[in-house]
Write a structure and sequence with these properties.
This protein is mainly alpha-helical. The chain has 2 domains: 37 residues, no CATH class; 84 residues, Cytochrome c-like domain (Cytochrome Bc1 Complex, Chain D, domain 2). The chain contains 7 helices and no strands. The longest helix is centred in the middle third of the chain and has 13 residues. The two termini are 24 Å apart.
């Protein structure tokens, strides 16, 4: 949130929302949001074939190494499990294409070579975890 507020991370949907939010308020908001129960965003639309392809790709790519085995994230590594599929898709494509300003550059390197279909399968898998 600090990077978004400072204009170092571009999230069009968040532009301006954090402009006058203090560091203390960001810490309080972070604590509140991290205490929320996790609920997958779209389990009703789970496509088992696509889910399985994404699961296989995530294992081969060792996503659980940094994002943890259940994809819950840790420290500065974000949670993937249960995130909105369209958000994950947009973010991973931006990383692959070098357009994810203010994000971990290591992920940009990792995503190079992934096809749109593979990224779609990963996004579907993570969102349904």
């Amino acid at each position: 949130m600090v990077m978004i507020r400072e204009g170092l991370r571009e999230i069009p949907e968040m532009n301006g929302l954090l402009k006058h939010v203090s560091d203390k308020q960001i810490q309080e908001l972070s604590a509140l949001l991290s205490s929320q129960a996790l609920e997958a965003s779209n389990k009703a639309t789970k496509d088992l074939s696509k889910f399985t392809r994404g699961e296989d790709l995530s294992k081969k790519s060792l996503c659980g190494t940094c994002h943890m085995p259940q994809y819950q994230g840790q420290n500065q590594v974000p949670r993937l499990a249960g995130q909105r599929e369209e958000y994950l898709l947009k973010t991973m494509i931006a990383m692959r294409d070098g357009k994810a300003v203010g994000r971990d550059t290591m992920m940009s390197g990792i995503m190079v070579g992934f096809s749109d279909q593979q990224i779609s399968a990963l996004a579907h898998f993570f969102s349904n975890r």
